Amino acid sequence: MTDETMLLHEKINADLRFLLECLEEVLFEIGEGEVAALIPWRENSHSPSFPVSIERACQLYSISFQLLGMVEENAAVQVRRVIETARGPSHERGLWGNTLLRLKDDGFGEDEIAAALERIHVEPVLTAHPTEAKRGTIITKHRALYLLMVKRENPKLTPAEQFQIREEIKELLELLWRTGNIQLEKPEVQTELRSIIHYLVNVFPEAMPILDRRLKAAWSNAGCSEEALKQSRLPRLTFGTWVGGDRDGHPLVTAEVTRDALHELRLRAILMLRRRLVDLAGSLSLSDHLQAAPEHLLRWIEERERRLGSSGTEACARNQGESWRQAINLMIASLPVSVVHDQGAKLEDSQGRYATADELSEDLAMLDASVRAVGGARPAEIELFNIRRLVDSMGFHLAALDIRQNSDFHDRAVSQLLTAAGVEDADFSAWPEEKRVEFLKRELALPRPFLLPGLHPGHEAEAVLECYRVLATHIRTYGAEGIGSLIVSMTRGASDLLALYLLAREAGLLVYEEGGCRCLLQVVPLFETIDDLERAPQILRQFLEHPVTRATLAVAETGRPLQQVMIGYSDSCKDGGIIASHGALFRAQLELTAVGDSCGVDIRFFHGRGGSIGRGAGPTFRFLEALPPGSLRGCFRMTEQGETISQKYSNLLTATYNLELQLAGVFGMTVRGARHAAVAPEQSAIMEFLVGASRSKYEELISRDGFIDFFSQATPIDVMEHLKIGSRPSRRTGRRTLKDLRAIPWVFSWNQSRFMLPSWYGAGTALSRLKEAQPHSFELLSADIGRFPLLRYLFMNVELAVLQADREIMNWYAGLVESGAIRDGFMERIDREFELTLSHLRLLFKAPLGERRPMQLKALSLRHAPLAALHRHQVDLLRQWRSVCSSTGEGDEAKRLMEELFLTVNAIAGGIRNTG
Questions:
Q1: Tell me, what DSSP letter sits at residue 423?
Q2: Running DSSP on this structure, what letter comes out for residue 342?
Q3: Are 668 and 624 in contact (CB under 8 A)?
Q4: Which of 188, 248, 412, 667 sits at a 20 to 30 Å CA gap from 339?
């Protein structure tokens, strides 16, 4: 065991012991002594089967798991600090210090490295998929508790101060105990948006200056010149969101919801900047008596005061003799918002106010120059630099709102337009691809719309057009900065993308000019299934060669055009298993990059990763290293979904760490990709073999007779579909088929029953057949798997999934399957594949799984006993609930059992720190 591992264990044990002592005291003080006896990881703890109500047991274990997760997170932060202090900022893989030193060691010059900084643009996209099982009020209390844990780290606190912190921790623990853990009603989209806005307003603005400071420190530590860094534009970090814009199978996201989301994001962005400007005015207290204000600053103040009228006069009446503060007062008065004490705030677009964030950015640049003109370089490089970076990152919109809809929905919308126009053959979805493309090519050459005023073509057409009209109005009023792209999920052909141009024309988003027409927003394909990923290069080429696309990209970008392409990890894994998914995604990125190059366009990949291994999750720096060489060219987007957001970004230092992994990782891969470095030539052949073997094994399982019965009864999928943890339905259209089921509940249900099946099934067969058919390739792989970044990343994830799975618990859930033949047949296959996967991973990595993963093994062993008790509860409840539903329907008794099932789902999700 390494020194770092020992330090981490000691820290976790000490902090966990302290929190559990506090919890035990609280429970005894409020008369819950029987429950206190069940607190896990205490020397005097009773067996988890000790008889208390399921509700109380679930509540206890949920809180205990959250405390453990909190302790582990804080320990990781503190240990990273200790290691960085002892070994320097270049020790930890994936962060700025290590990335810069490795690049220099590999022969990259300082000029080459510095030039690449300007190309980096990372955009995490926060979504609200139904994977966050905790209520917002619970997450808020967890944040407060974590901050108190950090506060008590201070070694200079007096005993009285330590006692006060302990009392505050106990108060929060009591409130957690008395607060319901689960959502009793499905959250509204507005509730989800408020949660996302919390991170955008309170966490990320605080993280950004820390990220810049860490880059500068790492740059200096790597021996790079300060001047080279000053001459470069620092990497750009912006944010996106789907909340209020993602309407794929989501009937609650209407045009009105999208309009309200855009409004709320704008209002909160401006209010956040207003607070920052108020703080800046407080700190930038330069006196005109000690340094003469530059003439250009005084002219600016005079002109701005005149433009603003009475509000400008009022702003200048304050801080006489402090011109810099007066200038900031005028900038505050120029913000397009009015704030009334005790009555809230509202957008104010009157004359003289800023129309765009660029105008504020220009004024801040002027202020920066005026401070430097009097020798104030230090305050300019700290105070002004930070707020200018914030304006550049978040503008007047916080995050760009993407608009996503399914291609089938668009097909129905186009059919309704055709019907309204009197076209005889109006079933657009039934047309062959060639006919669809030819029709759209002819139509888009004409500026006339289909619809006459007052016509109501049908639900789908009206829903799309109403949404697009909201976007068009927003663009006319504020510009397009706050809107991301029009994303087409389940893109199957080029016509799925071109159809959006036709719909955009009806709403005023298509602009006809002398040289042709262009769209005001970029249309983005989302390739999700393995079949769609295989067709993706052909689809993209046809789309990029279309004149409307060329015109749109030419206007939207300076320099080489940039087309965004989204690739989905969830459905491809659901289709063919984890190895086939990774193989298809890797190959698609290589081929799509080549298509872009041949069309003179850079491809910006948008990675639709979920929160679990079966949906694309894995260590960020390993994930980035495994991307195809040359496919990452500075611009990178990635979804952050569900509980992953709170795990990665709830607390400032953890948020900073995770953002740095993205920024530094994208930077490192971009620099290396510029030289077109190739992976080991054998990787493609090995991967192709593994894909074929694993996919056939996986598809044989899910297509086997009786599989739907096994899946439906051996996992709590029926409970997943009743959960109140997200506003989105579990199925796209409501059909009860495996194809219609979303990947999120698919993975969630396998995780709850501890099969973790999508994350490993087929891997054992693939490795076994490789060893038998190509022993040299297997030996090559196991001798130095580091030469194969994709395969290393893939099998490290499979290894972790196998570690998280539990064969004993799997069998408990399998016992719910009514048919013995179906149960035994599938469990025999699953057990055999699990054993095969375990044995071949041991051969591949040349060490038992437990030796390679001591931290994960320790974390899982801590959680095992309480999790096992919860799983037993859930299995018993499932059996009772299903029996009641089949005999008497979903009455009061079924409802009571369902609420208890919700509690077990929430507690188990907290224990394994994962849902879907």
A1: -
A2: T
A3: yes
A4: 188
246 with 179: CB under 8 angstroms?
Answer: no
223: left (phi over 0), alpha (psi -120 to 50) or beta: left
Q: Verify whether residue 864 is a known catalytic residue.
A: no
Q: In percent, how much of the chain has pLDDT > 70?
A: 95
Element (H, E) at 562: strand 562-568
- Residue 129 falls in the annotated catalytic set: yes
Any bridge partners for residue 340, and if so which? 344
Q: Which of 540, 493, 491, 498 is nearest to 517 (CA)?
A: 498
What lies within 8 Å, CB to CB, of 260 at 6+ separation is: 190, 244
Instruction: Give the predicted TM-score (pTM) of the model.
Output: 0.94
* Pair 804, 863: CB distance under 8 Å: no
Give CA–CA dist 346/338, Å, rounded.
6
Burial (0-12, 13-18, 19+ Cβ within 10 Å), 306: exposed
Query: Rounded to an integer, what distance in angstroms lies between the CA atom of residue 346 and that of residue 344?
Result: 7
Q: Which of 758, 789, 755, 785 shows the shortest CA–CA distance to 770?
A: 785
Residues paired with 605 in a beta bridge: 565
8 Å CB contact between 7 and 82: yes
Beta-sheet pairing, 523-527 with 483-489:
parallel
| Cα–Cα separations (whole angstroms), residue 662 to 146, 623, 636 | 24, 10, 9
* Residue 598 neighbours by CB distance under 10 Å: 11
- Which of 397, 574, 648, 858 is the catalytic position? 574
519-569 tens-digit pLDDT: 999 999 999 999 999 999 999 999 999 999 999 999 765 678 999 999 999
Through-space distance between the first and last CA atoms of the chain, rounded to whole angstroms: 32
Closest to 265 measured CA to CA, from 323, 332, 201? 201
Residues 652 and 313: their CA atoms lie apart, in Å, by 39
Catalytic position from the list 11, 129, 546, 858: 129
